[in-house]
Design a protein that fits this description.
The protein is an all-alpha fold and 108 residues long. 78% of the residues lie in helices and 0% in strands. The chain has 5 helices and no strands. The chain has helices at residues 3-21, 25-48, 53-65, 78-87, 90-107. The longest helix has 24 residues, at 25-48. The two termini are 23 Å apart.
Length: 108
């Protein structure tokens, strides 16, 4: 349905597999940080664009199954961490998405 979203999930899946296959701790930390920031960006795109709440809920469930949601906070990105305070709470995040979609349709 949304090819960009599916491609992002595929990239996260491959990144997750790479981390699981890795046994070098020096490499693991930057990979986990990159995965966290990529996931935060993915969540922001779900928030920013007018995706239906049910679609966002399904994508969050997929991230949960991959064991990357809730997202690990960043080592050095305060803006991402601030956004993750909202996005890491599924019910709150979905409620904000629903309110945003409702307001979007009122303005349209």
């Amino acid at each position: 349905m949304y090819r960009g979203v599916e491609n992002s999930l595929l990239a996260l899946t491959h990144m997750n597999e790479l981390i699981k296959l890795n046994d070098n701790k020096l490499v693991e930390e930057p990979l986990v940080e990159m995965r966290s920031m990529t996931t935060a960006g993915f969540l922001y795109s779900l928030f920013r664009f007018n995706f239906p709440k049910s679609f966002v809920d399904r994508k969050l469930t997929e991230l949960e199954k991959m064991e990357i949601y809730p997202v690990k906070k960043s080592i050095n990105n305060r803006r991402a961490n601030l956004f993750l305070l909202l996005a890491n709470y599924k019910l709150l995040f979905l409620s904000v998405i629903q309110m945003r979609n409702h307001l979007f349709h009122l303005i349209k």
